[in-house]
Amino acid sequence: MKVILSTLNAKFIHTSLAIRLLKAYSGNDFDIELAEYTIKDPTMNIVSDLFQRRPDVIGFSCYIWNIEETIRVIDVLKKVMPETTIVLGGPEVSYDTQYWMERVKSVDFIVMGDGEETFHHLLQELSGDRKFHYVFGTAYRKGDEVIINPGRPKSDLNTLPSPHRFPEDIPNLSRRIVYFETSRGCPFSCQFCLSSIEVGVRYYDIERVKSDILYLIDNGAKIIKFLDRTFNINRSYAMEMFEFLIENHRGCVFQFEITADIMRPEVLDYLAENAPPGIFRFEIGVQSTNDPTNELVKRRQNFTKLTRTVTKVKESGKIAQHLDLIAGLPQEDYATFRKTFNDVFALGPEELQLGFLKMLRGTGLRNDAAKYNYVYMEHAPYEMLSNDVLSFADVVRLKRLEDVLEKYWNAHRMDHTLNYLMRVEFDSPFDFFQEFGDYWEEQGWQRIGHQLEDLFLRLHEFLGQRKLKTPEVVLGLMKLDYFLGHKYKPRKIWWEDRIGKDSRGRYLSMLAEKFAWQSKDLSGELAERPEGKQEQLAGRPGGQSEQFAQRPLSQPEQLVAQQEGLLFHLAGRNLSERELQKFAVLEELPFRLEHALQNKELSAESMEPSLLVVLYQQTVDEKPLYFSLPLARA
Length: 634
Hints:
Helices cover 41% and strands 16% of the residues. By secondary structure, the chain is α/β, with parallel strands linked by helices. It has a 7-stranded mixed beta sheet, sandwiched between helices. A 6-stranded parallel beta sheet has the order 8-11-12-13-14-15.
């Protein structure tokens, strides 16, 4: 009996842990192949590939993001392969199982909950006596009747074989995200989440976990994403894992979902002191800062402690943070959600994801939908359309905000500009994104594509129809962000005013002399220093001066450090005027750049003109370096 385990991933870089768990458990007893596709693949391409493999049984892992596409595949498969047994499993079909059996007539069996033991037992019966009423945890057909068997006790995780040791996975480990679990279950009872249905948390043995992670790293894994619903719920387990990953990461990046308000201070201190920059990424579900809302959905959250954690992590400069919000929760109207958004944005996350409530099958909130007058999509992803305090018109407006939030803030295309706009020109971050999102849709831009230059032009057009307090500062920061958005010196710019040829020549000549002088000066300074101190100076990151070398920099400090230390980085290169022509861009700004980046009101001194200099291809990672000089001094 040939078995294929399949799923439709959201993207190629994603991998399915579920089907690997099933193969690991049953692969020694049955002929099992894996077949992964994406939700973008044409139905006929998927069907044709499965048809040519000639399986006796096909199992699909189902989620809200792939269920509708999977159903289309199944319906065609059953027409061209009527004798093939179709089995569904996964969180999307583990609840309201009767509904799925009645809706999708092409399905023969559904596996509910943990699938390893249940699916193995089902395969035994399919290849043997076919006594399906013994297979607890399944639903099946008996003539026209749907039979739903009792559930199966949850698995002891340490009896399950590793899903991470398949040789055929090794060639793609470096190109895809590896999904990994150290536990199953969640201790919390959030009524919008499927994890709240399972009581208790089960763990894998930590030594087994470490062994699997070392295997993955040894074989080239670059990103490992932990699926644990609350990675830090067990402090000692989490701490041991953090220590292990720090000691053995070898450049691999690890992503976790954490609950920020329960993170212990000693764990935060350890991470701040020991985590190498860039290897950890925290995903934190804030969802709402409205206490009545959190109480209604049984979400225990201390926002003061959450703020402490997010702030401490951010100040360490070691760990990127992705914070989540959910629009459409009970008692969260448009005005209340505005406050939630601004509360969370004030924490300065690298990414802020705005999601919309999904009324998932099996959750308490879906069961109580009538209580809050929820209207929602009938089919996946079951997004709410309105409730008793948030109208559909409000939802539409928030969708517009979400669109520009993703394009501008989360993509980090204009960080300097956006931070200034939200600090100086708009009442709040929410108001900026909302007004821009409304304008974006009015212009019909949501229906057309965009390049980097288009994003700047569209923001410039939006701001142009609004009376800004300091339009010249905003334009200057947009120029800076545009230059920093390129790996190489850009061939064209989108603004009209530019430095004249004669002025540019004078500036380049001045800069070449300055670099030559500073290189000679630094060479003498290095010669007089002890050997260790020489290495410290010569090895500084681009643009980072000695006084800032041992801690993360705030945005204004970064500029000061660049102005003081950029020439240290370039010492010995002796950039000539000809090389500067090739690698440098110059722009006259009608203000002091470092003043505009500081969190304070601009003064008369701030409006003195300066020269912006951006240098390309001068560091190993080829990120642009920039600094500014007062024009009078230049």
